[in-house]
Amino acid sequence: MHSEKRDYAVSHHLLLLCGIALLIGVVSTLAADVLLKLIRFFTNLFFYQTLSLAEHSPAQHTLGAWVIVVPMLGGLIVGLMARYGSDKIRGHGIPEAIEAVLFGKSKMSPRVAVLKPLSSGIVIGSGGPFGAEGPIIMTGGSLASLLAQYLHLTAGERKSLLVAGASAGMTAIFGTPVAAVLLAIELLLFELRPRSLLPVALACAVAGFLRPFFFEAGPLFPLQTAPAARWRWAPACWPGCCAAHWAPRSRLRCTGPKTRSRGCRCTGCGGPPSAACWSASAAISSRARSALAMT
Question: Are 195 and 163 in contact (CB under 8 A)?
């Protein structure tokens, strides 16, 4: 009873976290702007051999068959960065953020904050089949973690600020503050308490407010599609049924009374949960809901 009251009580620590979250919203928006400029820069460098931040599509390149070499070159460069810089830049970004929250006490190194956006700009700019979601979550989270470490905050406060930075970065890139908050609750926070949720919401609100000053208004991926026929619901039926069938079997069974990281066993592998288990479980559950909604 007393612990629940502390979760909803307003203290100077919560006010401090909210103030820092406002700053993190600004920092994550700037990081998102830098990430997109790096992608444009390396796109122009690899495909057009020019030093420019202008937005150009790689589809109009004049390299001919040599374009096959461009993604290989980008992958080689990033591989060397991961080998001699930091292996934390490998992967999508979201599983690494989950691992930092669950097993790393929400601590990230300065190398990740620098090398992750740089390596992502090289990979995406050279034609790699990736997007900006994972990189900005890792970049925003690492910057927020570094700020929390500099201020000597506790592990719980570092987690709240790390998630706030990741969510604010996603808001700045995609312009989706509500979706960023929901993603943070499902994949990173593992709880729904005001002391954790309020800093995340404030950081996303700041990023959403600042986004029009850095990025153009309008849809991020404008599409023109023909009206869907009635029979098109059929292909979405079977993956929805399959996902709904397998999602409960992929959830984690937790026996610990307080946390989800202690006393837990993965029903799939039978061992202690890893970051991959958490992300796979959440991904399957979310895909199941999405597929059923389509039907």
Answer: no
Q: Where are the domains of the chain?
A: 12-57+65-214, 231-294
pLDDT, tens digit (0-9, with 9 covering 90-100), for 130-188: 888 888 988 999 999 999 999 988 888 899 999 999 999 999 998 889 999 998 888 88
Rounded to two decimals, the pTM is 0.71
Q: What pLDDT score does 264 carry?
A: 52
User: Tokens 């097993």, residue?
Assistant: 103
Q: Name the CATH superfamily, with its identifier, for domain 12-57+65-214.
A: Clc chloride channel (1.10.3080.10)
d(CA 254, CA 266): 8
Distance between CA atoms of 99 and 281, rounded to whole angstroms?
14
Q: For residues 79 and 123, give the distance between their C-alpha atoms in angstroms, rounded to a whole number.
A: 10
The owner of tokens 């820069």 is 41
